[in-house]
Design brief:
The complex is a heterodimer. Chain A is α/β, with parallel strands linked by helices. Chain A contains eight helices and nine strands. Helix content of chain B is 84%, strand content 0%. Classes of the chains: A alpha/beta, B mainly alpha.
Chain lengths: 237, 285
């Protein structure tokens, strides 16, 4: 059964629809790239799935295994965090909070989970550094580690590659691929970068006003919309 | 010097002011870190204006001849209730409508201030009570006020420490916290509630015009000194209490207003810390 199933979904801001009649599913082990131009509703869709915004119409059904606590989220870079005094350890530990209920402190298992995830993303040596002083790529890795601490199954990333240099981007794609292949994690990525979405993704959801496409990567390449964006005309959002 | 300090503590009203002042400085400096980081530093100032309005209403109604005979409004509890209510109102306005939080604060605080001034002008006129509300007085705390203040600040400290990690999470990244199932609205309300308590309790000694400085300045100084959240919180608490104690002693010895003296000490520390940080950076470069 699909982890997330959207039917006839209409999303938008303050009652004004941005995208209507969306239908797609996220299967276990999938790697879905959501692409589209600025303002096409990519982030709105992600926020609606996460419950940060209300859908205008339609339904989203979650598999039992994905109760709300099973989704890890990597938000867009937030300006509030520019001068925020916090160590990497403090940031990543906050990812464990959603399982704690009213317990006020972290225990050994939480700290081990944090260490495992830092290790997995090769940033264990950064753990005592100040988050605000890291490079863009390192910050994304820290926030990814935090997301990994908060979930079991499904990871949603909102433009994780924005503002990274090409080398950091490639490393990040590799990391996501590893998480998907080796750890069997289901990954949803919002991205502007169609070329790499087609390279690393398994499914593509393309939002472009009234026309939306959802399907496998190979199918997308044969599709008229896909051919238009990925073929003759260079797509860079 | 030692003799003078001993003498100072022989006055019960000063002991009361010191006890309440230390508790309130602790609360204010802890909450201050979160309010500064959440870009909510103005809420302290806004709520102190609301406090002024409520306190003025209570004092001027109590001064009416008809009131004194049958009924008296307890100024401190009345102010606490009003400020808490309006803190929630500010939160609601900025969450649910097109008015930004800074505009919502300006709206509510000037409205309260206006109502307070109207009440005063129609009853007692500008007297020393009003001046004390604005600029603070060391004589403000009655015995009953002290009990209420100590209990409430203990509650604030307890809740802050108990929810320490959650408050960090909603300060660092509200969206992530909400997406992973933390009830952000409840913790934002908690933060507003704790801030409201702290402002009202500190207002009597520090003055409603100056109270927000002890919310903001220790946090700013600490952020110049330290780079992790826990150290900033601890340093803010320590700086705030030390500055309060030095400030109130200076105020006693030189007969300067308490609130202004405490703020002056806080500002001195802030400039020293900023200068040190600046020179350290230039040397390292």
């Amino acid at each position: 059964m699909a982890l997330v199933c959207c039917e006839n979904l209409t999303i938008g801001y303050e009652g004004v629809p941005v995208v209507g009649n969306l239908g797609f599913q996220i299967e276990p082990g999938d790697c879905l790239y959501i692409v589209g131009e600025n303002g096409s509703g990519k982030s709105t869709l992600v926020k609606t799935i996460l419950g940060l915004m209300k859908a205008i119409g339609g339904t989203i059904t979650f598999d039992e295994s994905v109760n709300r606590f099973g989704i890890g989220y990597l938000p867009q870079i937030n300006n509030n965090q520019k001068n925020f005094p916090a160590s990497v350890l403090e940031v990543v530990l906050s990812g464990c909070l959603n399982k704690k209920g009213l317990t006020p402190t972290f225990n050994k298992a939480d700290k081990e989970l944090v260490a495992t995830n830092l290790e997995k993303l090769n940033i264990l040596d950064l753990r005592n550094k100040c988050f605000a002083e890291l490079s863009g790529g390192q910050k994304r890795r820290v926030l990814l580690a935090r997301a990994l601490c908060s979930m079991e199954k499904l990871l949603i990333l909102d433009e994780p590659l924005a503002g990274l240099d090409p080398k950091a981007q490639m490393e990040f794609y590799k990391t996501l691929e590893d998480l998907n292949e080796k750890e069997r994690m289901t990954i949803v990525v919002v991205s502007h970068d169609l070329q790499n979405a087609l390279k690393y993704g398994k499914h593509v959801l393309h939002l472009a006003g009234d026309v939306t496409f959802w399907g496998g990567v190979a199918e997308y390449k044969n599709n008229a919309l896909g051919a238009y964006f990925s073929g003759g005309v260079r797509y860079d959002g | 010097m030692m003799d003078e300090i001993m003498e100072m503590f022989s006055y019960p009203f000063i002991v009361r002011a010191v006890v309440v002042g230390v508790m309130v400085s602790l609360c204010a400096s802890l909450l201050g870190v979160n309010l500064v980081l959440k870009r909510y530093a103005n809420i302290g100032d806004g709520l102190s204006h609301v406090g002024f309005g409520a306190l003025s209403i209570a004092l001027s109604l109590n001064a009416l001849p008809a009131m004194t005979k049958y009924f008296r409004i307890e100024p401190l509890p009345f102010t606490i209730v009003m400020v808490v209510l309006l803190a929630f109102l500010i939160l609601r306005i900025s969450e649910n409508s097109k008015i930004n939080s800074d505009s919502a604060i300006a709206l509510v605080s000037t409205a309260s201030f206006t109502i307070g001034v109207m009440f005063i002008s129609m009853t007692t006129g500008m007297n020393t009570d009003v001046c004390n509300t604005l600029f603070g007085t060391i004589l403000a705390m009655s015995k009953r006020d002290v009990y209420l203040s100590v209990v409430l600040s203990a509650v604030v400290l307890f809740l802050y420490i108990f929810f320490y990690h959650k408050i960090f999470a909603i300060t660092f990244d509200e969206n992530f916290a909400r997406a992973t199932g933390i009830r952000v609205n409840i913790y934002n309300m908690l933060l507003a509630l704790l801030t409201a308590f702290t402002i009202v309790l500190g207002m009597r000694i520090m003055g409603s015009l100056l109270i927000s400085s002890i919310v903001v300045i220790p946090a700013l100084s600490s952020m110049r000194l330290f780079k992790t959240y826990k150290l900033v919180i601890v340093s803010s608490a320590v700086l705030s209490v030390v500055c309060f104690l030095v400030g109130i002693t200076i105020s006693y010895m030189n007969k300067t207003p308490t609130g202004a003296s405490v703020v002056a000490v806080n500002l001195t520390v802030f400039f020293l810390v900023s200068a040190t940080a600046y020179f350290k950076r230039s040397i390292l470069r």
